[in-house]
Amino acid sequence: MRHNKKFNHLGRTSSHRGAMLANMTCSLIMHKRIFTTLAKAKALRVYAEPIINRAKEDTTASRRVVFSYLQDKKAVTELFKEIAQKIAERNGGYTRIIKTGTRMGDGAKTCFIELVDYNENMLKDKAAKKSTRTRRSKKKDAGEKVAAEAPVAEVKEESVEEAQVVEEKSAEAEAPAAEVSDKAEEAK
Q1: What is the C-alpha to C-alpha distance for residues 21 and 25, in angstroms, rounded to an integer?
Q2: 26-71: per-residue pLDDT in tens?
Q3: How many angstroms separate the CA atoms of 178 and 146, rounded?
């Protein structure tokens, strides 16, 4: 009987399942994101997160424990050198599962599983959100800028034309004043 054995066997024997999860974990460490089925991704998360957590403490013992699970020197060095530095402040939740729909052939639910700190698109979005204000103020500011720019341009054109008209009038006003002053000098 299977009482209290709740993990997904994935239709494989224990040795096959362990080898598959170890290979998937190595691929996840090396490529930072892999495409797989939802059931495998959930099983991989349970398998990989304790291994990634072990990498926070860089000791010979922890390297040996991780190597006993993964059996890949390149993946172990990548995990302890690069990934351990990025996850140092994180307490858990090192992976993210993003569902992508169903597979055409058999209708299996598919997804991406990725390391959280390595998704550059989402990290850029976080940085952009932190540096800007709320959405309402953006819309309001953008509307004010567009509204403010258009009338200013029109006012500038009108003010140039008005300035020319004012200069012509002042020149005409100065001319009679100059004639009057000339006549006043002649009268003296």
Answers
A1: 6
A2: 999 999 999 999 999 999 999 999 999 999 999 999 999 999 999 9
A3: 47
Mean pLDDT of 114-142: 69
Q: Which amino acid is at 172?
A: E
* pLDDT at 174 > cutoff 70: no
- How far apart CA 187 and CA 183 sit, in angstroms, is 6
Distances 104 to 7, 33, 54, 98, 101 between C-alpha atoms, Å: 26, 21, 38, 18, 10
Long-range contact pairs involving 81-84 (C-beta distance under 8 Å, separation at least 24): 83/29, 83/52, 83/55, 83/115, 83/117, 84/55, 84/56, 84/58
Q: Name the H helices within the chain.
A: 14-31, 38-54, 60-70, 73-78, 84-86, 120-131, 135-187
Q: Which two tokens stand for residue 141?
A: 């500011």
Tell me which residue of 49, 47, 83, 77 sits closest to 63, measured CA to CA.
77
Q: Which of left, alpha, beta for 184 (phi over 0: left; psi -120 to 50: alpha)? A: alpha
Tokens of 78: 């990548």
Predicted local confidence at residue 119, as pLDDT: 80
In the predicted model, is pLDDT for residue 107 greater than 90? yes
Interacting residues of 93 by C-beta distance below 8 A, sequence separation 6+: 49, 116
